[in-house]
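Record format v2
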Amino acid sequence: MSAEQKSPQQSAVDELYDEAEHWNLNTGEETIHAKRMGGLWRNIKWLSASVWILFFIAPYLRWGDRQAILFDIPNRQFHILNTTILPQDFWMLSLLLLFFALLLAVSTALAGRIYCGYFCFQTVWTDVFTWLDEKLEGTAPKRRKLDKAKLDFAKFRIKFTKHLIWLLISVLTGISFVAWFYDAFDLWSDFFNLQAGSTAYGTIALFTVGTYVLAGYMREQACFWLCPYARIQGVMVDNTTLVPTYDFKRGEPRGRIVKGQSEDERTTGDCVDCKQCIAVCPTGVDIRHGQQEGCITCGLCIDACDLVMEKLDRPKGLIRYESLDVLEGGENRPLLKRPRVWVYGLIMSAALAGIGYGLSTLDALELKVIHARQPLFVLLSNGSIQNKYTLKVLNKMTKDVPVKITATGPEGLILVDADGITAKHGKVTPRTVFLRVPKSNLKGENTPIIFQVEGEESGEVFVGTRKSVFIGPKY
Amino acid sequence: MADNNPFPGENNTGHIWDDNIRELANPPPRWWMIAFWASIAWFLGYGVLYPMYPIGQKPTEGVMGWTQIKEYQEGLDEVVAVRAEFENQLKDMSAKDILANPGLADYTVASVKVLFGDICAPCHGGGGQGGPGFPVLADDDWLFGGTVETIEQTIAMGRKGIMTAHGKILSDDEADKLADAIAAGNPTSDPNFLQKGCIACHGMDGKGMQMLGSANLTDGIYRFVPGEGESIKDSVKQTILHGVNDVTDPQTREAVMPSFGDRLSKDEIKKLAVYVYKFGGGQ
């Protein structure tokens, strides 16, 4: 093969080397203009990012006469489909947070920062913004050139269009966020009639600025310097974790293709040092240095490297999802033999079971009993002891319900002032009641008492009970 | 200067002392300078909008006219406005009417709680539990009557019970026996209860008379609770021997409820009466 007659491989690689000068490691001083190309992981990334479509459309779903999912903070009610959650049930939220915290832990332990790479809003919004960059300003070298060019009309027009669209996406993000907390249809009309209130406008403004700055300017710098999870997840990864890995055994010593050299004479490894992996990296890191803080394990470098290997007729997978154990010649430990899978799994199951229990036992009527602190008891003229209680009847139904209160305890127990209570819907109805017990019927200082609330709604009877105590004099 | 600078390329200002101590030109970062000037602008703007510069006796007022007192007054007006709806209804109602309306009774209890804490709780306790020398408001044994009207009257006019000291007409032994009978809740079992004139105030059955404010001696509830180390009988005997509010006896019991008619408005007294009634002993 003469030097004049280039092989197809050679010409493909020459092109890559021509542009390789541009790709440098990200040290934060320059804007990253990542090359965008298709591929398996690119498609997976679009798929996973599409779950965020829910963020924009879910607030418009209705359930009966209200929004299907509405976190109604002013009224302290969370509506999720047919369930209404009041502040009293908020302990479930802590279990939910526990579940998601461990889901992050277990997914990171098994497959690295897949949340960062495929689902995180920072990644997804940045991805959409750079997609816009590419559509409006052209490929990465063109973008870099445009940034350096003097401001003329053409540049102004492109930049203006881009920032306008960025801003529109940002505002839409803000409105969509608020729509989870504010009836979505009302929000749109209130928004334009200037009736949405300062909290809504403030939140929309905050999210608009946040989206515009974080996805437009900060981008990968947010992952490097702002995000705490990026750092926490680093310590969750171990030798068994599958992460995008450069196979240094195959790749090293890396070296550029020498013109005219045949494959048999080659003394270098499979890596041709074309820097395409750096070119496509949205955070601008060099995966060949191994797993590092900047890597969000998005897999785009795998696509880039596979494409080059394909052109050169070398086997794909020089960069691939692989664990450190396997790369160093070991074997992958089976999932079920990893203690973290079991521990995380058990805690997650416990959290889920707790939420399941909570949701299945959401009582329609709930009773709380608060014993008066001063005086603990009062002696009455007829020799009875009187205790004072504040009852709080919580009615989670949508209609006011007349309720009957009863109390069981020692013989001769009389309940006073507990008649005619109507439990207001979605609210706590308080009532002060008294219990009287003849002194002679009390066996000790403290006697257990059970209060019960009973109400009927649409033919169904709801009952709530609560234990309390009746306090008498010391003997 | 630049030509003979002995430390070229390190960004110094050319000011060098003692051969090698030199001043470097390291300007603060841009963001720092922006924040610096922004805070000065903020300070100036704040001074224009809000009271700030101490010129003369008073600080400058600021173009917004904001003061803490005004903001406080606005908050107070808001509370008054919210309460007005209820207060206007209460104005023309008697305490009894209020009790008959559960919603207004709840409002009354909630809104007058602070006043009770200020005026009444020091003696009667926050929950009406009474204290040493001060009667319980939460029970149903009332010296002067437990209807809400009587309670209202008690608060407005005050009360002062009278019992003469009986140390001069009862021997110690007689007082002892009488105290035993009363502590047992059965005063009429002692003939002296009749003979020494106790019945004049406490009634033939010993159950007291609310017109006079005399105590019911049969129900085991005592106006003067025993002190530390005292039995009920000791305490009863003390009352028998030295009386209540008897100026001739220096060891007499003191029991005075001051009048609040001149200190509180009619509405306030009415609300307090409802509050006391609601402790659980109202009749």
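Residues 365-471 of chain A form a domain with the Immunoglobulin-like fold (CATH 2.60.40.10).
Residues 178 and 199 of chain A are 9 Å apart (CA to CA).
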